[in-house]
């Protein structure tokens, strides 16, 4: 099967998105969570048709989007989403902040599990929350929930858990058993679990995924999920996300009246196309990501022995451990300066990020090879 990452670098450099404009042209940009793919055919066609008819106004009725996502969730995960349990917003971050504002008072604790997606930290600040960090354990093997630590935090009064599922930057898919245990803790202590599931459609070949709300009655009672087509289908700039509740649908009714007006109309159109008919494209993407993981591991073993990363089971991000090379707390800064390779800064992910960097392998095999070659050359010189 051919790779979906077949766009020449010269063509990519004509893009005006953050990935390709944040750094000077001599830098290989691998930190920003965008993929170097062409749009899935159905999405491209739907957007072209909208532009041709001048259909670029405000987003309207979202019924078709809700139905498209319900079909997608049922096909991929066996998840029966109730239509009255879905709300829309511009993106997952906006949705999380608005829900947090209705769950906490300023200064209340919200539990996160570092190292974790750096945007969690400004989301918590914006909502007025205090960060309660319970790091993942067994991080060298991809990480898992510290259920004892989570229980201690809940017993101390924390009432909201912000879960990253699949976990960014490890690409770890939490097991149904872990999620059920988390849900029981949430029910016991009267807590709410906010599950960021934006990377869920990007699980790798052979890897299952259990949405938090589906694992038990306790999870349905205590959870709110957030998702979008943005990461899996590379349409983050078009702005469209979903908030999904079951037992806590009351919170959806409390959302501000203007929240759905933040949805981009082209994002709505793209998301309907993505969830309705691009399953085969996702399968091609999953195969391409698996090949890129293998390539990255082989090239690091050859050129930078001692640099390791836990096997990602979802998404296009690898959490590289550079500690054996003695590059200090922020290897990404070293490689940007010395190799002209931009990686995600490990310390930005919070506790235990020191000595690490995030590598976006959602790109061509040639870019992966060139990045590793440059890093190795910089260390030799």
UniProtKB/TrEMBL annotation:
<protein>
    <recommendedName>
        <fullName>cysteine-S-conjugate beta-lyase</fullName>
        <ecNumber>4.4.1.13</ecNumber>
    </recommendedName>
</protein>
<dbReference type="InterPro" id="IPR015422">
    <property type="entry name" value="PyrdxlP-dep_Trfase_small"/>
</dbReference>
<keyword id="KW-0663">Pyridoxal phosphate</keyword>
<comment type="similarity">
    <text>Belongs to the class-II pyridoxal-phosphate-dependent aminotransferase family. MalY/PatB cystathionine beta-lyase subfamily.</text>
</comment>
<dbReference type="GO" id="GO:0008483">
    <property type="term" value="F:transaminase activity"/>
</dbReference>
<dbReference type="InterPro" id="IPR004839">
    <property type="entry name" value="Aminotransferase_I/II_large"/>
</dbReference>
<keyword id="KW-0456">Lyase</keyword>
<dbReference type="GO" id="GO:0030170">
    <property type="term" value="F:pyridoxal phosphate binding"/>
</dbReference>
<keyword id="KW-0808">Transferase</keyword>
<dbReference type="Pfam" id="PF00155">
    <property type="entry name" value="Aminotran_1_2"/>
</dbReference>
<feature type="domain" description="Aminotransferase class I/classII large">
    <location>
        <begin position="65"/>
        <end position="374"/>
    </location>
</feature>
<keyword id="KW-0032">Aminotransferase</keyword>
<dbReference type="InterPro" id="IPR051798">
    <property type="entry name" value="Class-II_PLP-Dep_Aminotrans"/>
</dbReference>
<dbReference type="GO" id="GO:0047804">
    <property type="term" value="F:cysteine-S-conjugate beta-lyase activity"/>
</dbReference>
<dbReference type="InterPro" id="IPR015421">
    <property type="entry name" value="PyrdxlP-dep_Trfase_major"/>
</dbReference>
<dbReference type="InterPro" id="IPR015424">
    <property type="entry name" value="PyrdxlP-dep_Trfase"/>
</dbReference>
């Amino acid at each position: 099967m051919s790779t979906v990452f077949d766009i020449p670098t010269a063509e990519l450099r004509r893009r005006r998105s953050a990935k390709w404009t944040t750094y000077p042209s001599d830098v290989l940009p691998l930190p920003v969570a965008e993929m170097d793919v062409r749009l899935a055919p159905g999405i491209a066609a739907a957007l072209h048709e909208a532009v041709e008819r001048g259909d670029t106004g405000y987003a309207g009725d979202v019924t078709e989007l809700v139905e498209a996502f319900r079909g997608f969730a049922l096909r991929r995960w066996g998840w029966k989403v109730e239509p009255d349990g879905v709300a829309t917003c511009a993106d997952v971050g906006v949705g999380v902040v608005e829900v947090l504002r209705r769950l906490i008072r300023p200064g209340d604790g919200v539990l996160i599990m570092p190292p974790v997606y750096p945007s969690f930290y400004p989301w918590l600040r914006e909502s007025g929350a205090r960060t309660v960090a319970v790091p993942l354990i067994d991080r060298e093997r991809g990480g898992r929930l510290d259920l004892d630590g989570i229980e201690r935090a809940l017993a101390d009064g924390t009432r909201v858990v912000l879960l990253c599922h699949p976990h960014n930057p490890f690409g770890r898919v939490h097991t149904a058993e872990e999620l059920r245990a988390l849900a029981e803790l949430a029910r016991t202590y009267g807590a709410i679990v906010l599950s960021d599931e934006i990377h869920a459609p990007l699980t790798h070949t052979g890897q299952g995924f259990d949405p938090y709300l589906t694992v038990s009655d306790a999870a349905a009672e205590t959870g709110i999920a957030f998702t979008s087509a943005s990461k899996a289908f590379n349409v983050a700039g078009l702005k469209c996300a979903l908030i999904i509740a079951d037992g806590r649908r009351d919170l959806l009714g409390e959302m501000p009246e203007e929240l759905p007006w933040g949805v981009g109309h082209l994002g709505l159109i793209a998301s309907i196309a993505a969830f309705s008919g691009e399953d085969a494209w996702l399968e091609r993407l999953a195969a391409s990501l698996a090949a890129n993981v293998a390539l990255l591991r082989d090239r690091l073993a050859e050129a930078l022995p001692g640099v390791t990363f836990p096997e990602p089971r979802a998404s296009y991000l690898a959490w590289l451990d550079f500690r054996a090379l003695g590059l200090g707390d922020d290897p990404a800064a070293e490689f940007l300066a010395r190799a002209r390779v931009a990686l995600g800064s490990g310390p930005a992910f919070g506790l235990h990020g020191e000595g690490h960097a995030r590598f976006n392998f959602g790109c061509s095999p040639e870019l992966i090879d060139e990045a590793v070659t440059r890093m190795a050359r910089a260390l030799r010189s």
